[in-house]
Amino acid sequence: MITDGRPRPKEPNVGASFSELAHDVIELAELQAQLMVLDVKSATRKTRTSLILAVTAFCILLGSIPVALYTLAQLFVVWFNWPQWAGLGLSTIVGLVISACIGGGAWLRFKSGPGTMERSREELSRNIAWIKSSLRNQPKAVADRERTHETEVTRHPR
Description:
There is one protein chain. The protein has helices at residues 14-80, 84-112, 118-155. It has 158 residues and is mainly α. Helix 1 (14-80) packs antiparallel against helix 2 (84-112). It is rod-shaped. 5% of the residues are buried.
């Protein structure tokens, strides 16, 4: 190969380039795992609150049917001279509405809990895109770095 007195360009070191890429991929995987652990903890915290709210709503529903709603039914019967069945029916509807409101709040909080994993999904997508781009452009990037180094050497001779 004729070099006209210039130093011969180094051949790309595929092994070193792949080793660097593998190191970066492993480091990204570690960071991705750490981010997922944080997201799972956050989702668990939100889900725990939703579960507590749901259990509370269920307990209120069960507790309100035999005690509080029966008392309300008796108030309707006495105050408005309603028949027994009308007072019991209206108090049941009141209990169901209260339970539905608390259950709806629990459902809304539960739906927002798993959404915290969005950060992990976005970061994973970016990391995969970076790995693909690095694998596609790796030989070109190594050659570009070597050419830049060679021009600096030839411009600044001793």
